[in-house]
């Protein structure tokens, strides 16, 4: 008999609770959807959930831990985002279009997640207009966040970038190490220390 790890049951309950706040999602469809999140994993601190070049196609729901999404270059790792408990994450070009990931997703803390395979997720969207609508809204929300971050990076003054991030995501300063926040804001850790 297969036993479900305690964190996986908690993660599914957390996902169910989150989806239950969406008024147009029927409870039976939520239950069916959550039951498809069958992969459970722990990612130790500093280990990778997704590595560049990876071809695995999963959408993950974070139960515990914080992660960073970054683009590695020869000279630096450019941080483009963070993932917190209760949020979904994937290597989007890989998940949406099947292109191997150029990004990495790394655990900043030991993290526990559940996952759904792309083909199962797509099947849920195909069979449920309500979930297709929710996914569209989620993609739009993430796109708006990316646009906000792009505006941040276009601002010439580091203090302006920092203030915009404080306004949008005050919780991030307790969860993410300074060097990754600095990379995300495209400034040196020293500049960030001086401004904080």
From TrEMBL:
Keywords (alphabetical) are: Kinase, Transferase
| Signal sequence bounds | none
Where does the record place the Cyclic nucleotide-binding domain? 21-125
Q: Does the keyword Kinase apply?
A: yes
Coiled-coil portions:
none
What is an example of a GO molecular function annotated in this UniProt entry? kinase activity
**At the top level of its lineage, which domain of life is listed?**
Bacteria
Q: Which PROSITE patterns match?
A: CNMP_BINDING_3 (PS50042)
Instruction: Kindly indicate whether the keyword Ligase belongs to this entry.
Output: no
Name of this protein = cAMP-binding domain of CRP or a regulatory subunit of cAMP-dependent protein kinases
